[in-house]
Amino acid sequence: MARQAVSVVPPKRTAPAQEIVLPGNVQPFIASPIYSRTNGYLKKWYVDIGARVTQGQLLAVIETPEVDQQLQQSISNLNTAKANLALAETTRNRYQGLLQDNAVSQQDVDNAVGTYNADRATVEANQANVRQLQALQSFEKIYAPFTGVITARNIDIGDLINSGSSGGVKTDLFHISQPGTLRVYVNVPEEYSQGVKTGMTADLSLAEFPGRKFQGKLVRTADAINMTTRTLLIEIDVDNPAGTLLTGSYAEVHLAVPAQASTFLLPVNTLIFRSEGLRVGIVKDGKVVLSAVTPGHDFGNEIEIVAGLKADDQVVINPPDSIVSGQAVEIVQATLPGDIK
């Protein structure tokens, strides 16, 4: 019986690293809305969007007439309490001196000491109230919490400012971000998660910079797979001293992920689909052996095989549907696409 002629191809090892391209969100290293800690009306603002500010720089001033009046009243109450305390101290000292001469009773001395202690507590309470109102008054001036860029201004002169302490909606006065270093967050599919390690470098490409790459470094991962998306969240930091990249941009992140050991590439026309699972025909000693294989990534014309192949296997190309294990064949050598120079 004549042997069937078949073409065979050796498996091609995958590259030591495979580049994957994933979408990334460019965010500032630090970003924060700036709220007021006191209620009032905006008296003046000093910076607008795009302004570069330094930590501690004055951004706006709020008028708080109620707080100012409450502070004056509290200071007056404190002065009254101090005067009462001074009188109570004098009375206490006098009664303690008279007690030695038996000129007053012990009860009178105890009453004077109790009055002094009560007035001292009243002074301390009024001092705390004054400090609280002074702190609220200091919140009239809004300062930059860190060096950065103002990205939003949501108030104007005369606007009512609500701190939210009374249960109302807080007023966010400004938004500030620090774009000197950018954080790029990327969701890596679970199948690549084991190859993503801290310290790896990544290249960013943006539509507004065609042909240009920006290099970043993978600084941390979530160390957990998101159960909803089945992805691993990673953070890539990119130096941006000149502010070339804008926060909020969309970027394509290129990562070179190490390939798994002992993985191969085969043309898709070597696969045999059988009810018992995926198979390929391997020629051994002039006969075909149908071997089970485990597929990996599908690259279109080629497919990754992660298990079931060895480097010296001879795999049948375009196997007929009737091929079976043990069938005698005659080999016609073939090569992978792109191997012929």
From TrEMBL:
Domain Multidrug resistance protein MdtA-like alpha-helical hairpin: 71-132
Main location: other
One Pfam family recorded for the sequence: Beta-barrel_RND_2
InterPro entries according to UniProt: Beta-barrel_RND_2, MdtA-like_BSH, MdtA-like_C, MdtA-like_HH, RND_pump_MFP
SUPFAM superfamilies membership: HlyD-like secretion proteins (SSF111369)
Localisation: Cell envelope
Cellular-component GO terms for this entry: efflux pump complex
Domain Multidrug resistance protein MdtA-like barrel-sandwich hybrid: 34-166
UniProt name for this protein: Efflux RND transporter periplasmic adaptor subunit
Organism: Tunturiibacter gelidiferens
